[in-house]
Amino acid sequence: MSQQHQSQPQQQRPGGYFVDPKRGEVGELRSLLRNPEIQRDVKKHRQAVQKVIATMTHGIDVSPLFSEMIMVSASKDITLKKMVYLYLCNYAESNSELSLLVINTLQKDCRDENPMIRGLALRNMCSLRLSSLLEYILPPLKNGLADRSPYVRKTAVMGVLKVYYLNQQAILDSGLVSTVYSLLTETSPVVVVNCLVVLNEIFSNEGGIEITKPLAYMFLNRLLEFNEWAQGIVLDFVRRYSPTSEDEVYEILNVLDSRFKHANAGVVFAAVNVFLQMTDSLPHLLDDVYQRVKVPLLTFMSTGTPEMSYVCLQHLHILLQRRPRLFESDIKLFFCKHQEPTYVKLKKLELLTDAASVANIQDVVDELTAYVTDVDVEMASRSIAALSKIAMRFESCAEFCINQLISFLELDISHVSASTLLVLTDVLRKFPDRAADVLPQLSHCLSSVDIPEARAAIIWMLGEFGEALPASPYLLETVVENVKDEPSHVVRQQLLTSCMKLFFKRAPECQSMLGQLLEYEVNDETHMDVHDRALLYYRLLRNDVEQAARILSVENGAAALRATRFAEDELLETREKLLEVFNSLSVVYNQVPEAFLSQQVPYTQHKAAYGERYFASLTNSSEGGQSTHDEASRRVITLQHQSSTGNLLDVEDDMTFGLDHAAGDASIQSAVPMRAAAAAAAPHSHSLHSDQDLLGLGAEVAPRSSSVGVQLVPNATLDPQNFENLWFATTNSVEAAMTLSVVPTMAELERTFAANNIATMASSEELEAMRFYFYAQLVTGDYVLIEAVFDIPSQELAVTLKADQAPLLGEMVRIFKSCLIGKFMNPDD
Amino acid sequence: MLSQFFVLSARGDTLILKDYRGDVVRGTPEMFFRKLKSWPGGEAPPAFNIESIQFLYVKRNGLLFCCSTKFNVAPAFVLDFLNRVASVFTDYCGVLNEESLKRNFVLVYELLDEMLDFGYPQGSSTEMLKTFVYNTPIAVPADPTDMTLGSAGGVLGALSRAAVATSAEQVSRPATASNQPIAVSYDQARTRRNEVFVDLIEKLTVLVGSNGAVLRSDVDGMLKFKSFLSGSPTIRIGLNDDLVVKAHAGGDAGGRAGSVVLDDVNFHESVSLQKFEQDQTIAFVPTDGEVVLMNYRLTRELPLPFRITPFVEQVSGTRIDLVLKLRCEVPRNIAANQMVVRIPLPKSTNSCTFEIAHGVGQSAEYKANDKTAIWTLRRVNGSSEQVIRCKMFVPDASIVPALRREMGPISMTFEIPMHICSGLQIRYLRVFEKTSSYAPSFRWVRVVTQSDSYVVRI
């Protein structure tokens, strides 16, 4: 497979059948590079190479210049060398045969007397990501680890990790890992920290290298030798150490206290994390620790960039969760600043709400009140929601908050009134006696507010508390009279319920209105749910009025239940867990790591492949800005589907090459057909989709699989991670291609397969192709995994099936086909 | 660690892209940018993920400095690193903008190659990088539109390099004099003057309630240093004798009357922490490039530079007036520059006219689109008072309380050179030279107060 990659561009390069619009430019560059006059003059030579690099960064494919650039690498000039290496790293993968020629120069440079050149050559040699060169890389790497220059040593250490990803076994066999281990205690801090990160990654499946007491103390004692970034990394490592006694904890914390004065947020956050993790089991220390660590975090929040403020706020929120009164006296720091980005303001709002306590509640409420007239609509509505939350939480200031909320209705700003009305429904459930103060405002709100949910809220209040306002039946009456102009079914549904409720309270005033409304809604069928509800009420009333009254009041109980906030409880639980992963993206996302990371230990680049295949297909419609890579390889691989999936299997058999190809191919595959066909086809195929959608209701009744040999389990489940693992672990595969008679929509196909017990793992739509990953489970418990790519212009469906038991595959293909026959495919196909 | 580092222009063009680990799909910058632009509810937070690729970014000078990673990285660490990368680029290119990055891209790649290896930060000090960098920078003039105006230069004490920058971002760019790339080669270093630039910048956050009470007054300050010194002399900057840092002294340290009490402070790694604890001097050996020596914050009642008193009065059935009195409370010999006062007016405002003092560099305009009055004052002298009367025409002026509530909050941006609200002082700046033949150095010191968020509610 990789052979194909390399051979094709060479064939195309000299003449090629396609006229490359940029060929002129590349040709010009080539003659520049070949010009002996330029080669003699270092300055001019540099300019020429710089031009090549510039062209490359503009996204133009300059890979045809590969051999010329290799010539340049022999130059003594270090500036030239650097530029050439930059180029080589970019194109080596697509020119792996020619890359062999570079190795010579690189090897020579690895023996240069200038340590800078040695380091440079070593770094780039390891970055080529060509496992075919492995045998040439290992010896210089070994020498590099023993080099007298720390610069070369640290580069070599990182090189071990790079090569490890290229070929894990080779590194484990080479004994280099133990050399790296021994360098952990050497003198140069830059080398030490690289050893640390390299070993942690290589042993990631064991949670990184084991942290022993001597190791922890060695790092703590040498902490100040490290540069700031290394300090952050070292502290993150020390965090994993569990001290054996409380005195030891004190000792360590004392050493780290000075780190809080560091201007680098990475260092401070890492030190804070050590404090938190080491004292987590010492409850009597927690108060002091939290008071101590909050100070530097508040400093970064206040003095840092908005981005840093945001990260600090998220972390402070975790602390707040554990110590609700932690920021009692710092509350003003969470007041919003004038020009802050919305994401900071909204986060501050959350903290203001959650950090409110009896001691500062007045300040908080005043501040929130001021935000209500903010120009930002989101900000206004969240402030209003925050006020209602505070009203519910602090009985003592509920009255004040509710008065504020009521006063917002007077402002006559549509979005403010709407948000206020929404939260008032919650507030009134808890404080029904305040209804009398709210209701008089509703009359003008009803005429000024046009957001359906808010109107529904008004109507709800009128129905629920209508007895408190003499005019309430008449307010509802105006809505009832205009009901045919009311577009929102939310409003109409609420109107029905409210009229019913008010009817039970004030029957004489409501009877005619209710009758009128029921009659209209029963006869109107624009919204079936409204119609149904009207019919239900009508029948209830006709059957037994008493019973109807009882039923309606039960509904109120259910509504009250809705007011309990489950979503928030969940968030609280998540935050609780997040303390363990303090100082990570988890805190910023408010998500546990598993929710957003696909990479699992031990890290291998394979693992990335599945997610990215899917992913790549989602994104390939973009024009790569920095697409030099893509362009090069796209040209190379005008391949059919089969061959590329074949590659996936090869990767599994022979890990020594193409770790990256798996991911690369996927994006290329999906990109190729897209490029080939005219973009004009897109709107056409789109309209087809929507037609099909309308007709596609019957998909569920597609023929059931009735095969004898293979029986599929209904409702099989498989999570993406396992799918991915299985996909790579399974080597038995079969490929099939079929032509569909129509272009189905993605949903249609998925539904059809689902009806036949073939579930969808992932799917994505591209401009002219659809991509699916399906799976099915056999009664034996085995899984069958399917990748299907449907090329819309050709209506060709290419399928790859994988299963542990090879004999099943043929049968499975038959089942797969049978799902399609009839609806999407002609039987004789 | 980091998979890729990239810089995007404001339009989303990829200016720089370096892939360190090859473990994410290509085209990530486009993916990132599309998500950024389509973020619901405005600006995207500095970290988000698409599928399982994590993106972090910071904005600097209108450029986006971004990275992608597959690890659950420490966000503060990464954001600070991105900021540092931007600073290093500034040090090497002189100015930071699209043009300077494009012109110096080979240099930039060279820097990136040394700063990160396989996605792990290797070092970021401008000084350290100098030994590894061989390309020479190509100077690019700063964007004329946001160029800072240099007033007459002065020596220590007397203010130099006045700047008109208003936002924090612009300030981070050195004024003209220090707007040059650092010297990369020995030849360049020799021809340079031995200069140091010190900036003490305080950013004010003030909130005044509608009753005139000061609800909040905070200062976020920083001491910046940029060196063009040859050799490695020790530098000492003396601050107030009676400086107290609350976070270090323990909770209840009030300090003596009149002393400057900082809530918290942090230092660049080159600064000796011991020396600061001993006698409040900042002692360090300068490195090349611009560094922030110290950040500090304090929350306390401060002598505010401005008092704004608003009056609202109903003039007729359809006209309501807002009179603002702006009193500048700083000493007479000091003045605030480039002051802009923004006053949001009620939504129902049909039009608005102004009465302001004529011919003193003031102007006022009404932006009908966002119903805001903007009052611009080029210079406001200390101990002076300015008045503006905004005459608003509204459908119904009788609902004064409701209209009043819709006005404001007034926000002000300004800069006051030679003035520091916290009382912090640079008492001296000494360069300790090791050899006597050392050329006398030029020391430029600037102190300035800027508005961060100066808000007055009506």
TrEMBL record, chain A:
Q: Does the keyword Nucleus apply?
A: no
Q: Tell me where it resides.
A: Endomembrane system
The segment annotated Disordered runs over 1-21
UniProtKB keywords: Membrane, Protein transport, Transport
Query: Where are its TM segments located?
Result: none
Mention any one GO cellular component term assigned to this protein in its UniProt record. Answer: clathrin adaptor complex
Principal location class = membrane
Domain Beta-adaptin appendage C-terminal subdomain: from-to ranges? 712-826
Q: Name one GO biological process term.
A: intracellular protein transport
Biased composition regions of type Low complexity, renumbered to the chain: 1-12
Stated family: Belongs to the adaptor complexes large subunit family.
Q: What is this protein called?
A: AP complex subunit beta
Annotated source species? Capsaspora owczarzaki (strain ATCC 30864)
UniProtKB/TrEMBL annotation, chain B:
- A GO term (biological process) for this protein? vesicle-mediated transport
Membrane recorded as keyword: yes
InterPro entries found in the cross-reference section: Adaptor_comp_med_subunit, AP2_Mu_C_sf, Clathrin_mu, Longin-like_dom_sf, MHD
Entry's Pfam families?
Adap_comp_sub (PF00928)
Its GO CC terms are: clathrin adaptor complex; endomembrane system
User: Which keywords does this chain's UniProt record carry?
Assistant: Membrane, Protein transport, Transport
Identify the residues that the record assigns to the MHD domain, covering every copy: 193-457
| Main location group | membrane
List locations, semicolon-separated. Answer: Endomembrane system
UniProt family annotation: Belongs to the adaptor complexes medium subunit family.
Q: What protein name does the entry list?
A: Clathrin adaptor complexe medium subunit
What species is this protein from?
Capsaspora owczarzaki (strain ATCC 30864)
